[in-house]
Write a structure and sequence with these properties.
It is a single chain. With about 90 residues, the chain is mainly alpha-helical. The protein has helices at about 5-25, 30-55, 65-85. The chain has one domain (about 5-85). The protein is elongated, with a radius of gyration of 13 Å.
């Protein structure tokens, strides 16, 4: 992954984090900065996973890669939310 790919993953990660938060039902007990951080991590891991599966570079919009990233963000947010709720 090149520098441009990392920067775009960070920018897309912000959007992914917000979308992941919207997918998780109910109120979340984590802040927006933690949501963005989860989105960035999910975007980076999702991009690597999509590349490993061979679906990262397709003609047009990479819908499968976006779905992987959003699913990972939703899982991360849900896991952190459960951890924060237990405190």
């Amino acid at each position: 992954m090149e520098i441009a790919g990392i920067v775009s993953a960070i920018v897309i990660g912000i959007v992914i984090g917000v979308l992941g938060r919207l997918v998780v039902p109910g109120r979340q007990h984590i802040g927006i900065l933690l949501t963005i951080l989860v989105g960035i991590v999910a975007a980076l891991i999702g991009s690597a996973l999509a590349a490993a599966l061979g679906v990262a570079d397709t003609n047009g919009v990479d819908w499968i890669e976006w779905l992987i990233q959003i699913a990972l963000a939703a899982l991360g947010i849900a896991a952190l939310d459960r951890g924060m709720a237990r405190r």
